[in-house]
Amino acid sequence: MHMWSKTVCPILQNVAKTSSIRTYVKGEPTGPQLKTEIPGPISRKLHAELNAIQPSDAVQFFADYNKSLGNYIVDVDGNIILDTYNQIASIPIGYNHPSLLKVFQNEDNLKALVNRPALGVFPGDYWPKKLRNVLLSVAPRLPNVTTMMCGSCSNENAYKAMFIAYRRHQRGENVDFTDLEKESCVSNKPPGAPDLSLLSFHGAFHGRTLGALATTHSKAIHKLDVPSFDWPIAPFPQYKYPLEENQRENEAEDKKCLAAVEDLIQTYNKKGKPVAGIVIEPIQSEGGDNEASPEFFQQLQKIAKKYGASYLIDEVQTGCGATGKFWAHEHFNLESPPDIVTFSKKMLTGGYYHSIDMRPNQPYRIFNTWMGDPGKIALLEACLETIKNENLLDNVIKVGDKLKKGLLRLEAEFPEKINSTRGRGTFLAVNAATPALRDSIIAKMKQKGVLMGGCGDQSLRLRPSLIFQERHADVFLERFRQILNEH
Ligand SMILES: Cc1ncc(COP(=O)(O)O)c(C=O)c1O
């Protein structure tokens, strides 16, 4: 199979094979360079200004997006920082990539951006072709795609699609709603608003809107004070590393978690809250880069089918190549595609791929004003072209291998400080011995000119863009080693 067959993707017809590229973005800085501490004085001043307008406690520094280039983000104080975190895993091909800067010089793209349509009701003539040539050219074996804005609203609407399909299956195709259903749903009451549930996993992150938040279980701070649903939450496998040395225990862990899933489905079905769908990330990202085996995902799909639940794979963070395959769940060899795959972040637009079964058969049931943005699809078109033309998935595999080996070497050198290197492609993580050590490593790396992210309680995660090269890996590994030495 693959998504980039030239027959379905005209943008890729003039593919130049370029394997010996030295740099993907001309003029990129040669290394980090620091002028002040981070945040510097200009960042601090802007922070005070912003904080007077809106809560901005999470702001780390202000960036200069004119000067940021390739893998380097430049802050307003002139510090040049190697970015391994990329706007929370969301920059696919680096800052100011020339192919993206060109997109709105094209008159058609500019007009699509300026005359932003309410896509659900007044799409432009270009829309079906754009969806086919851009989003469907990388579809994970699913025939339909519905665009949205962000990751949360993609999940939120995909969840609705799963409930709607579940009730349609129960009711029978083409059977109309009863008057009681129409009346009761408006007051949030069954049978119109039925007591259905979705099964999610401890440690999961699927977003912050109310429905998505009900399936998010990574950190209390996301959920405090917000009412939620009584929906089943299953344990996600917790593996021992290295995987090769702990196969038997990890297989037992898979079995235990799968048994718990089945148990929970039966319990919730019995208590009158049938499980309409299972939602899962291919790698639990915000929750700590927790992996599960291909066999786990295969078995989970079988369980979903057995109980008539849909299977949603949330690729918001893992999608668009960072694991070395375009979609992370392609590593799992599922016997059939999941029912829904959601995306956002590096895909530049939000949305979800879905089976025909997940289409509601009445208008306005999955809907909002914009339903995405054609400007984002124009950017994605250029981005996908670059990924293909420059063989960036090969780059991810090569650089990921180097990074992972480097992390494992550091793990062997500092076993009391870091452990459990894991991940695929450049989508990698390592644990620090304690949460405090993890936080301190991130803070000190920043002062050495390398931006890193954390996830879970004590993990460090790498989320470089697809143009992260071996020389950037060298800079990262060298500075990481210095920081580990200093702790
Ligand atoms: C797996 C996953 N799903 C959903 C979301 C929510 O996306 P957004 O922040 O765009 O709403 C995220 C965000 O980090 C995510 O990692």
Q: How do you describe this structure in short?
A:
By secondary structure, the chain is of the alpha/beta class. The longest helix is centred in the middle third of the chain and has 24 residues. 45% of the residues are buried.
The CATH topology name of the domain at 139-359 reads Aspartate Aminotransferase, domain 2
Bound molecules: pyridoxal-5'-phosphate
CATH architecture level-2 label of the domain at 139-359: 3-Layer(aba) Sandwich
Distance between the termini: 48 Å
What is the percentage of strand-forming residues?
5-15%
- State the total count of DSSP E strands: 16
The major pleated sheet works out as: 7 strands, mixed
Order of helices and strands: HEEHHHHEHHEHEHEEEHEEEHHEEHEEEH
Query: What class, by secondary structure content?
Result: alpha/beta
CATH superfamily of the domain at 139-359: Type I PLP-dependent aspartate aminotransferase-like (Major domain)
pLDDT under 50 segments (min length 5)? 1-19
Highest CATH level, the class of the domain at 139-359: Alpha Beta
Strand order of the largest sheet: 3-11-10-9-6-4-5
Which whole number gives the mean pLDDT?
95
- CA-atom Rg in angstroms: 23 Å
SSE blueprint and pairings:
Layout: H1 41-51, E1 72-74, E2 80-83, H2 86-89, H3 98-101, H4 107-114, H5 127-135, E3 144-148, H6 151-171, H7 179-186, E4 197-201, H8 210-214, E5 233-234, H9 247-270, E6 275-280, E7 283-284, E8 290-291, H10 294-306, E9 310-314, E10 340-343, E11 350-354, H11 374-389, H12 392-413, E12 418-424, E13 427-432, H13 435-447, E14 450-451, E15 453-455, E16 459-462, H14 470-486
Parallel strand pairs: 2-14, 4-5, 4-6, 6-9, 9-10
Antiparallel strand pairs: 1-2, 3-11, 7-8, 10-11, 12-13, 13-16, 15-16
Pyridoxal-5'-phosphate is lined by residues 150-152, 155, 205-207, 281, 285-286, 314, 316-317, 344.
